[in-house]
């Protein structure tokens, strides 16, 4: 008899973890110990891997970049009607900022130094019997943070900055081509002002330790724990299973970077597929975070598989782009060529609006949605491992038309 996907248990576990736990705080230490104990209870070999980092140089660079870009785009908007050439040069000065906000891989060098913030990654492993045929890596970060700008506000300001900059560029391109202003002069000035104000507002962002992190990310950790209890008994012994709860995701994904760098050689020589859980349990449709930055895909193969499995379950999923400046633990995996797809849920509503605030409470999580996210991940894991789908209290996880991606992990 197959154990039911217990959304109520996941909701209770998420409630246990829902307390402020910004990296380096007492709450973070408590969260690390709690996750490690739950993984041990699941029968896994558990390691707590400590690390430290210094985020101050990155914050200084980020704030300076945002202020500089805000001043440049504002000046470009004012100059565009009369001096479009100079305005265009000022707009080109935004290019380094675009590279920073899109999480270019070389920026990871800024996070490698040790520093005053100490936290840990928690790793539970079911080793393969002999050389592993493939590795399935499931992860959900355990830390939380509050901000003086809520998550929706930050996203809105980011989109306003991008929209204003694109609007200004759309005015300058034909003006430069024609050699004279094209269109109303209010257009570039309004676009430049909107972008400048948004960038200056983003430069004032501050992190804090007031969020209990129910939606971000206790619900996802509960999904990870459910799968840690369930998958080892369902998948073949030649499949290696790693359950990773990184620290410092809320500080620019430092934990995921450190873990990947430390385990680079261990992951070589076989297919590696990674599922990241973030924001799971927010009521609404299942969500696949499929692209980031300016449209770079995380894993087309896993996206296709997730949609096939979801269709077999009778689920409608929504693909989402993570806009520039929005970070998630799947990004360091993408930088290293490892297929990693983030499973989430929800739509605009109280649960999403509460992220990164003191109002991110576990009561906002929906047990049935937690179960649906876990069911989708389980169906994907079974397909990748070549295990037939089984009857489930949820709609069937398998069925005709579900195809396993071609073996491979490094693009």
Silhouette: elongated
| Portion of residues within helices | 40-55%
CATH class of the largest domain reads Alpha Beta
Mean pLDDT: 90
Number of separate domains = 2
Unreliable stretches, pLDDT < 50, 5 or more residues? Answer: 393-401
List the helices and strands and how they pair.
Blueprint: H1 7-17, H2 26-41, E1 45-53, H3 56-79, H4 84-92, H5 95-101, E2 117-126, E3 134-139, E4 146-147, H6 151-178, H7 186-203, E5 207-208, H8 214-230, E6 239-245, H9 254-262, E7 272-277, E8 286-292, E9 296-297, H10 300-313, E10 317-322, H11 330-335, E11 339-345, H12 350-353, H13 367-385
Parallel strand pairs: 3-6, 3-7, 7-11, 8-10
Antiparallel strand pairs: 1-2, 2-6, 4-5, 8-9, 8-11
Helix pairs in contact: 1-8, 1-13, 2-8, 3-4, 3-7, 4-6, 6-7, 8-13, 10-13
Give a written overview of the molecule.
- There is one protein chain.
- By secondary structure, the protein is α/β, with parallel strands linked by helices.
- The chain folds into two domains: 258 residues, Aminopeptidase, CATH 3.40.630.10; 103 residues.
- The chain is 44% helix and 16% strand.
- It has 13 helices and eleven strands.
- The strands form two sheets. Strands 1, 2, 3, 6, 7, 8, 9, 10 and 11 form a nine-stranded mixed beta sheet that branches. A two-stranded antiparallel sheet has the order 4-5.
- Helix 1 crosses helix 13 and helix 6 packs antiparallel against helix 7.
- The longest helix has 28 residues.
- It is elongated and about 70 Å long.
- The two termini are 39 Å apart.
- About 2% of the residues have low confidence.
């Amino acid at each position: 008899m197959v154990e039911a996907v217990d959304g109520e248990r996941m909701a209770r576990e998420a409630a246990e973890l829902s307390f402020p736990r910004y990296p380096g705080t007492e709450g973070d230490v408590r969260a690390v110990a709690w996750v490690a104990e739950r993984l041990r209870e699941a029968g896994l070999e558990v390691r707590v891997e400590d690390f430290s980092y210094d985020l101050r140089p990155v914050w200084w660079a980020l704030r300076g970049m945002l202020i500089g870009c805000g001043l440049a785009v504002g000046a470009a908007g004012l100059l565009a009607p009369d001096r479009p050439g100079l305005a265009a040069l000022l707009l080109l000065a935004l290019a380094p900022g675009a590279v920073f906000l899109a999480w270019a891989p070389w920026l990871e060098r800024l996070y490698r130094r040790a520093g005053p913030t100490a936290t840990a990654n928690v790793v539970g492993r079911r080793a393969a019997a002999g050389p592993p045929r493939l590795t399935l890596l499931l992860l959900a970060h355990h830390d939380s943070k509050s901000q003086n700008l809520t998550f929706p506000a930050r996203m809105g300001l980011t989109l306003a900055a991008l929209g204003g900059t694109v609007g200004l560029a759309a005015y300058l391109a034909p003006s430069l081509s024609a050699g004279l202003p094209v269109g109303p002069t209010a257009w570039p000035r309004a676009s430049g002002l909107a972008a400048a104000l948004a960038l200056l507002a983003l430069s004032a962002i501050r992190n804090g330790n007031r969020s209990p992190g129910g939606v971000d990310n206790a619900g996802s950790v509960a999904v990870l724990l459910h799968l840690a209890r369930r998958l080892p008994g369902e998948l073949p012994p030649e499949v290696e299973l790693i359950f990773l709860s990184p620290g410092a995701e809320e500080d620019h994904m430092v934990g995921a970077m450190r873990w990947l760098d430390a385990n680079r050689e261990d992951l070589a020589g076989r297919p590696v597929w990674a599922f990241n859980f973030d924001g799971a349990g927010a009521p609404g449709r299942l969500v696949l975070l499929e692209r980031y930055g300016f449209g770079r895909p995380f894993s087309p193969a896993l996206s296709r598989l997730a949609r096939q499995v979801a269709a077999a379950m009778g689920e409608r999923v929504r693909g989402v782009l993570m806009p520039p400046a929005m970070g998630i633990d799947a990004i360091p995996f993408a930088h290293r060529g490892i297929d990693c797809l983030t499973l989430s849920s929800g739509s605009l509503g109280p649960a999403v609006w509460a992220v990164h605030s003191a109002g991110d409470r576990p009561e906002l999580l929906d047990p049935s949605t937690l179960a649906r996210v876990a069911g989708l991940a389980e169906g994907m894991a079974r397909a990748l491992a070549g295990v037939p789908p089984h009857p489930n209290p949820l709609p069937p996880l398998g069925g005709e038309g579900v195809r396993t991606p071609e073996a491979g992990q490094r693009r």
